[in-house]
Amino acid sequence: MSSYLQNLTVRLATGLGNLPEETRELHAGYFLRAQKEDGGFGGRMGGSDLYYTSFALRGLSILGQLYGPVAEKAADFLRGQMAGHQTIVDFFSLFYAANLLKVSAGIDIFQDSDPEWRDNVAEFLHTLRREDGGYAKAPEGHAGSTYHTFLVVLVLELLEKETPDAKSVVEFLESRRDPEGGWREIRASKRAGTNPSAAAVATLNILREHEPDLPQMDHDTKELTLDFLCEMQTDEGGLRANTRIPIADLLSSFTGGLTLLDLESFDELDVSLLRKFVNSLQLPEGGFQAAAWDDAHDVEYSFYGLGCLALLNLGKGDQANG
């Protein structure tokens, strides 16, 4: 069975396949130019790191450009990042990037690793499990986080490991669901957000794929989720992170749009307005800005921009889009 992330990569690549060739080449050039001498990729300041390298490789993969020298150099960088203590975000970035290299370029950076490395990583992740059923951001964390629970489930799936006691994870996510729609990130959060809602829905879909006996999303929860996400669309056309933030951004637009597509309700959005918003952030030299306020760019938001273009094409192909 292919993983959630492998399926997502294929879907996004399919969506981008409908773009004009010159647009694809423009953005591929942006990512290729961003690679540093050590083979990694960085943010707007500083050197290469796992987080931004993962986003750049995602962008190159869905554009069909993750092969040859760029992949070999990236593999060298990732091998150099395998030792030492890392956060769950770093673990996710490393394993996702490694999976992309293996699938896209046939490069297995773990080929010469300790045969027990998968078990060792899984054991570390299990130390992040908390009594509330979720996973914490770090060993010192006292409570589960919706987003980091999503990341742990993703990494375990990439490691070909089952999530222990999946039913408790579902119960944890239910405890983070806002009665008025959407999901909260942590117990102390005062309002639901687009990104934790997307993380929760994706986590539930992954767990149900592996354990079909888990309860499915009921009609009322689905309708509240759809209403919440559609409320996040602003007059600009993109989606915002939560009700307190007036400005739309590409991250929230991608995660919210993907969730609506997965719930077979992408056409609930004003799709033409969303397309206008995404195109407005596309740079002439390739890449994307994050939002209307942004005066720069990076590989993370450029991936989200490409992802949004892919969703718009997938939504157009799968259902009416207004």
From TrEMBL:
Gene3D superfamilies: 1.50.10.20. Keywords: Metal-binding, Prenyltransferase, Repeat, Transferase, Zinc. GO terms for molecular function: metal ion binding; protein prenyltransferase activity. Its cofactor is Zn(2+). The keyword Cell cycle does not apply. Residues 27-65, 112-239 form the Prenyltransferase alpha-alpha toroid domain. InterPro entries: PGGT1B-like, Prenyltrans, Terpenoid_cyclase/PrenylTrfase. This is Geranylgeranyl transferase type II subunit beta. It comes from Mariniblastus fucicola.
